[in-house]
Amino acid sequence: MQTEQLKQSLPNWLTYARVAVVPIVIGTFYLPGDTGKIATSTLFFLAAVTDWWDGYLARKWNVQSAIGRFLDPIADKLLVATCLMLLVEAGLAAIIPALAIICREVLVSGLREFLAEIQVTVRVTKLAKYKTAMQMLAIYLLLLGSAGPSWLYAHIAGYFLLWIAAIVTLYTGYAYMCHGWEHMSEMDSTKSNEDS
User: Fold this and answer.
1) How many CB atoms neighbour CB 117 within 10 A?
2) Which of 15, 22, 118, 187 counts the most CB atoms within 10 A of its CB?
3) How confident is the model at residue 157, as a pLDDT?
């Protein structure tokens, strides 16, 4: 019985933890020296891992819940947007790719909400999954920065990877919007025919 309860609750608790870590990440980001960089990047890495882990467990154990489906994307976007804003504010990331990523997430979230109302599912493409992986890796490297080993060139690698992730983000966002636009056009066309 306890095992079943754990299976039911663990994916959601991992999502809750991802939300709870956001203010801690903000706090550690402002710690001086390498201590802050290592603590922040480690927390971000662990949170990113739970993003994959909670979804995997929910599917494996077939315990997907309404609150999990609602909160999971919010937790992801909250974590990513917070870290990007911190990095931009500190001059550690370029504002253009950061804004591109944040704006795309807002647009796609709105699109998903609209399509959900008309019972249309938007499937996550493989390219979008690769984009997420690049984005997470870029943010991790930027947060780690000079605290990482010298051979890693963490800040340089993270800087360029964020630009690549932003370009892929805009492409996948455009593809999602085209998909949504088709359904919007169909609805408007159907409404026009009914009105006439």
Assistant:
1) 8
2) 15
3) 97
